[in-house]
Write a structure and sequence with these properties.
globular, alpha/beta, 367 residues
Length: 367
């Protein structure tokens, strides 16, 4: 795996259920209409794998609507991790789109198990129209109701928002809304052609540059909200070259499906079918230890292609020292192979913010 992949993951993504009551127009999940639920046996195998080999990791419950598994089952799934959590070796986070109501009972579990809560919402009502239920009805009011419950209970939350073509010119409006929500951290995912969203409308790099330029200007005026991408770029610029080289290996991001199957490098690959890449499955936690599955990553064709492509990126791309090759899955979704290099995703989420910041620093930010 060396020198491109870290042996110790920082993040593990766990899919408690494939089901999502929502039907967002840009969703990449192919199995979101199926009710397939993780069993406590699978959760125990994951926890055992962490206990056997790894230092503290963040366990992110995601990949469907995690609250759709139901409170009782979710608590069952958490139980095997409790000794690890109490020992400081596991930190939980749940990412919800509001597809199931956030109730006081859920808040009790969040507090008791110290679960970080992330909410998915794209901005004010008029910019949140991609987020709908299966009947095509807007989710905005239901998501806001969940946020109000979190605020009433004093539970902090982060926000993930998708930036679509129609919102690239609305960065200030979106960020003002996020600040009014009461969050202190926002991450932006520029819409990409991934999984079920193969026909999505990816913003152009020029539209993305406008969005990031407006975001940098907003952050300069407002310091009470951290924007992930702004923080990451400034953090990178503050590193010495030695520090950049020391932190350059990719997190393998083991993502565990409801049935124990594991994919690596990109959570978006979960449930995607490909005979060429054996459906991206690196192993199953019911059969092999989680660390063993990660250690043999180099045996997988898609991992070998990706790491070979990273060498090409390093030689040919002026942005490589910042992005270190960006996300693996988008290479496949855009080009059908992991051996590809540049993608729309890296243009919009890596190149565009760097270019936008350069424009501002050189006094070219005016329209």
């Amino acid at each position: 795996m060396a020198p491109w992949l870290a042996e110790q993951p920082k993040t593990i993504v766990v899919q408690p259920t494939t089901l999502c009551p929502m039907d967002c127009t840009y969703c990449y999940l192919l199995e979101r209409h199926l009710k397939q639920e993780m069993t406590p046996q699978v959760a125990t195998a994951i926890a055992d794998g962490i206990a056997a080999s790894w230092e503290p990791v963040e366990v992110v419950w995601h990949g469907g609507e995690p609250l759709a598994v139901g409170l009782e089952r979710f608590v069952e799934l958490l139980q095997p991790f409790e000794p690890l959590r109490l020992a400081g070796r596991v930190r939980h986070k749940v990412q919800t789109g509001g597809g199931r109501p956030i109730t006081d009972a859920w808040c009790d579990v969040f507090e008791r198990c110290e679960i970080g809560v992330g909410v998915s919402i794209d901005g004010p009502r008029e910019l949140n129209h991609h987020r709908v239920d299966r009947g095509g009805r807007p989710m905005f009011d239901r998501t806001m109701a969940g946020i109000e419950t979190l605020k009433r209970r004093g539970i902090p939350f982060t926000v993930l928002a998708v930036v679509s073509q129609n919102s690239t010119g609305q960065a200030v409006q979106v960020l003002d809304f996020m600040r009014e929500l009461g969050t202190s951290w926002v991450g932006f995912n520029v819409e990409a052609k991934e999984g079920a969203n193969s026909d999505g409308q990816t913003p152009s790099i020029d539209h993305a540059r406008r969005f990031w330029r407006d975001t940098f200007e907003w952050c300069r005026r407002n310091t009470d909200v951290t924007v992930r991408e702004v923080s990451n770029l400034f953090g990178f610029l503050g590193l010495t070259q030695e520090q950049r080289d020391a932190d350059s290996r990719h997190d393998p991001i083991p993502t565990i499906a409801w049935n124990g199957d594991v994919v690596l490098l990109s959570p978006e690959l979960l449930g995607v079918r490909s005979t060429t890449y054996d459906d991206f499955i690196a192993g199953n936690v019911l059969q092999d230890g989680l660390s063993t599955i990660v250690q043999r990553a180099a045996e997988l064709l898609y991992v070998r292609e990706f790491t070979a492509a990273l060498a090409t990126c390093k030689q040919t791309c002026e942005f490589f020292s910042f992005c270190q090759g960006a996300h693996a899955g988008d290479r496949f979704f855009e080009h059908g192979t992991f051996a590809a290099t540049e993608t729309d995703h890296c243009r919009n989420t890596v190149q565009a913010p760097v270019l936008a910041l350069a424009e501002l620093l050189h006094g070219k930010g005016s329209r």
